Amino acid sequence: MNAWTVRTMALSAALLAAVAAAPDQSQSQQDGEAHFNIGLSHLREGRTSLALDEIQKAIRADPKNAYFYKALGVCYMQMRKYPDAATALRKSLQLNPYYVDARNDLGTALILGGKRDEGKAELLGAFNEPTNPAPDLTARNLGQAYLDEKNYNEAASWFRSSLGRNDKVVDSYLGLAEAQQGLSHADEALRTLEDAAKAVPGEPNILLALGQAYYGLGRFNEARAKLEEARKDHGPTGQRAAELLKQFAK
Length: 250
Description:
By secondary structure, this protein is an all-alpha fold.
């Protein structure tokens, strides 16, 4: 999955709570909620096709529920069907124009579907909404959009905005360091990664990036130490760290 995964896979806790809150529901609405809950469970466990089927059943039972369409959009984004995701998320916003989390995901779907300017406009609108539940992630996604376009100054500005709201957003540190490298500010990039290691200790992706940065500067003992820490991760990050450690003489 690419650098957009964090946002597109996120499901607000409010998504479930808001649907469960209505006391007087018709049988059709209750059926919709039941399918929706099952769909969310599948979605959280990565069973996207099963999630899609249940959420579509939920929509057939209750076609006026904005939360169901938001979840449908998330399913389609996981399947990389970005035009379908955008259609579902627009429907969610049509039913609830104040659903800022759906606007966040709509911006991401549009960008990943190639409609970059339209997507950035949606993200900017979401960022400026006072009810935005995650402005740090909206700013992070705007930073990623500009980073993809190699507009390093704008990318750095948005990543800093993200970190100003939440200093635990790992992708914002990594994106900021990459933007600073693109601007030929290697010293600033290193400081960003060192700050990240302090703010989010033990995070394998930061340790990997810091190890690579130290290696590039010839600081081999520090590089080895960070890569050894990153290698403890059981996923792709740990595997990559193990590969890089092979560069060191035994």
